[in-house]
Amino acid sequence: MLILLNSVIGQTRAKQFLTASFSRGKTAHAYLFRGPAGVGKKTCAQAFAALINCLSPVNGDACGRCSSCMKYHSGNHPDLVRIQPQGTANALKIDQIRELKKTLAYPPFEARFRVVLIKDIHLTMRRKEVTNSLLKTLEEPPADTIFILTGDEAGDILPTILSRCQIVPFYPLPYELVTQALMNDSVEQETAAALAAISEGSLGRARLLFQENLLQLRGEIIENLLYLAPGTPETVEKIFQLAEKAADAKENLEELLDLITIWIRDVMLAHKGLTERIINRDLARLLPAACRKWGHDSLRDKLLMIDKARRQLLNNCNRTLVCEVLFFGML
What secondary structure does DSSP assign to 197-227, as a single string? Predict the structure, then answer.
C-alpha cells in the first residue's frame, strides 16, 4: 500500500525536514529515523521511500499516480528492498546482509535510486557479525542507494552506525491526535482517550492494546482484585480464570503487567489527592474503593509482586502459574 508523507499522523518537524532535503536535492545516503515505538517511524520511512523515486512529485510529496508510485502501492517495486528482524530471536541475520550486498553490487533496475528499508536497527546489536557487516555497507554505500533505518529510542545503536546516518528524531504524538486516530478506527471516545494516555502518545501501542483487548482484560483483572473476597471458592475459581486469560496474552503479557502497574500508580496518586494526574481515566470510578482497600504499603507490595512476576517470566516460568501466584498475592 502506498503511504504519502501528508498522511503520516503528526511528526511535523520530521516531515518538513525530509521534504526540504528532497526538494533541495540534498538527500543523504543513509537516514536513521529514531524515536519511541509506535509513533510513525516505519510509516514515514515507507512514505519517504515512495517520494524519493516518484516521477512527478506534488508539493513535496509523492504523486500517487505515476508508474513508480503504483508499484510502491502494489508492493512490487523492484528497487525497494525491505529488511526486518526474523525468527524467534527477532533479530537480523547475517544471511540477510549478505544477500543485500549481492543486490547492491548491481545498479537499480529502473529507478534513479534503490531504497533499502531496514527496520528495528537496534535489534542488530544482539549479533556482532551482523552489525559489523552492515557497518561496512554503510561506510561504502553505492552512489545509487539510499538507506532508511528505523530504531527505537530506548534501543542501543552503535555510535559508528549513528555517525554514518542523518538522524531524524521522532517524538510521542499529542494525545489528542492519538485519540482522534483511534476514533477514526471506530473506538469509543472514552476508550480512545484512555488508550492515548496509557500509550503515552504511541499510536502503534494504543492500537495493539485495543486490538488485543488488553485494556478490557486489565479492567476485568483490577475490578476482580478489588472486590473479590479472599479465601472463598468463588474467588479461587475466578483467580484461576483470570490467570488463564492473562497467560493467553502470551507475548503481550508484559504489556498487561505494565497496565496493572500504571493503575497502581494511579491509586497512589489518588491517595495524595492528585487525581488530575491519573492515566486510567476510564477506571476513575474504582479509585475511591481502591484507596479504601489498599494503603500505601499495600500498593508498594503489589508493585514488588509484579516485579517478581516479570523476573519469573524472563526465566521462562509457566505463565499461568506466575499469574495465579501474582493475582492471589494481590487480593
Answer: HHTTT-HHHHHHHHHTTHHHHHHHHHHHHHH
Measured in whole angstroms, how far is the alpha carbon of residue 131 from the centre of its chain? 22
Sheet containing 114-118, strands listed edge to edge, beginning at the edge strand earlier in sequence = 80-83, 114-118, 145-152, 30-35, 166-169
**Does the structure show a pLDDT above 90 at 147?**
yes
Query: How much is the pLDDT for 96?
Result: 87
54, 108, 149, 212, 324 from 140: Cα distances, Å: 25, 17, 16, 43, 54
Tally: H helices and E strands in the chain = 15, 5
Separation between Cα atoms, residue 277 and residue 203, nearest integer Å: 21
pLDDT at residue number 160: 82
Mind listing the pLDDT tens digit for each residue in 174-190?
A: 999 999 999 999 999 98
